[in-house]
Amino acid sequence: EFHVEKNDSGIIAMITNNSFLDGATQRVMRRHLRETFDAIHVLNLHGDIRNETATAASDENIFDITQGVSISIMWVVDGINRKALAPVRYFDLEGTREAKYNSIESLFIADNGFNVIDSREPSFRFIPEHRENLSAYEAGFRAVDLFQVYSSGVQSKRDKICVAESKERLASIIDDFKNLDEDRIRTKYALPSDGRDWTMSYAQKLVTL
Known about the structure:
Blueprint: H1 2-7, E1 10-17, H2 27-36, E2 39-46, E3 69-76, E4 88-92, H3 97-106, E5 115-117, H4 134-138, H5 143-146, H6 159-162, H7 167-179, H8 182-189, H9 200-207
Parallel strand pairs: 2-4
Antiparallel strand pairs: 1-3, 2-3, 4-5
């Protein structure tokens, strides 16, 4: 996107997980994309085997992953106009992996199946919204107006070591972090790889302070 803004023209096509389309933490990014490009086309390939309910009899991922997938194509051809927001056109594609492959090969972004959706503030979602009860929802108050101090929700992603049913259980986990090497801890608690803000070595260092 940096090069598109630098040259005042360009096209970006990207494959991402489809939580990007309506995730709360990506709302500013979606707004910025609408401010940068002339048009945005989204192909939602679904395929999330964890929490999506497919309308098709069988919905498979196009990759060997659990997270749903989407393809976004965005372009600007004659300078960036910050005063106008790009229209977002959306296409749903569910079914078997083979059927999705066949559809993608024959699909054009000019197809009528790409329908304009109402990507409005504050969320700027790149996915159709069910607005039957929206007025009642928006008539309520925000949680941030109720609490004087607030922050984003906590996600440990490592509940097996961060949450315990008793003080004794938590003390046992801390002892393991003090006495076992990294490989044995990862195996015992089935921990994922280190993240940007959490590393095994730093966690072990903290419990020894």
